């Protein structure tokens, strides 16, 4: 059996906040790889360490001990300037709150990662953006600003922006948290198709079993440790597993 290729990984990652009696281990010796070209959900109750894990893997926070890699690049001890460039060029983000720039129209929001990096899309990259715009149903909205869009449309713009530079990995932080259930399912389907159809690597932090059921793999965290890792499962199975975890906590 082939060893899976990891687009990001942590080795014995520990993240500690506070000292003495107030000390909290947000991550407690976590070793985990995010497989390339797959949609991975990171699940757990509030305080389980899932957001801390995402922040550490994305280079938004540092580990107290252990090692962090993006592809073959160890980012554990990179400085802020190096991490900023690395995130800009190799990582995409989709947030619960969309994080679109309100003064920019849809076209400019999608092209923002290129503008921040001081470059224009190549012809090939613009073709890719045009494909994204068409497939996400945004062609008729390119001159609209965020306040003129529904929540679902805003999240589609955020996904297009994250995919525009074809990053090594997209982190999605509760991407359906501000959406109704039907629109949320549409957004999750888009993320699943980005992995299945385009080979995009996606890591999604969520507490929602329905959202996790769209992923290829679900990683369960509890008290800063990995409790289990499962291949695609139904929302009912995921929910039952979570309830079992909480009962044994």
UniProtKB/TrEMBL annotation:
Family matches, as CDD domains: ABC_MJ0796_LolCDE_FtsE
Keywords: ATP-binding, Nucleotide-binding, Transport
Gene Ontology molecular-function annotations: ATP binding; ATP hydrolysis activity; transmembrane transporter activity
InterPro entries according to UniProt: AAA+_ATPase (IPR003593), ABC_transporter-like_ATP-bd (IPR003439), ABC_transporter-like_CS (IPR017871), ABC_transpr_LolD-like (IPR015854), MacB-like_ATP-bd (IPR017911), P-loop_NTPase (IPR027417)
Domain ABC transporter, residue spans: 8-248
Keyword Nucleotide-binding among record annotations: yes
Signal sequence interval, chain numbering: none
Key word ATP-binding present: yes
Cellular component, GO annotation: membrane protein complex; plasma membrane
Xref: PROSITE patterns: ABC_TRANSPORTER_1, ABC_TRANSPORTER_2
Record PANTHER family: ABC TRANSPORTER RELATED, IMPORT ATP-BINDING PROTEIN
Protein name: ABC transporter ATP-binding protein
Organism annotation: Leifsonia sp. NPDC080035
Upper classification of the organism: Bacteria, Bacillati, Actinomycetota, Actinomycetes, Micrococcales
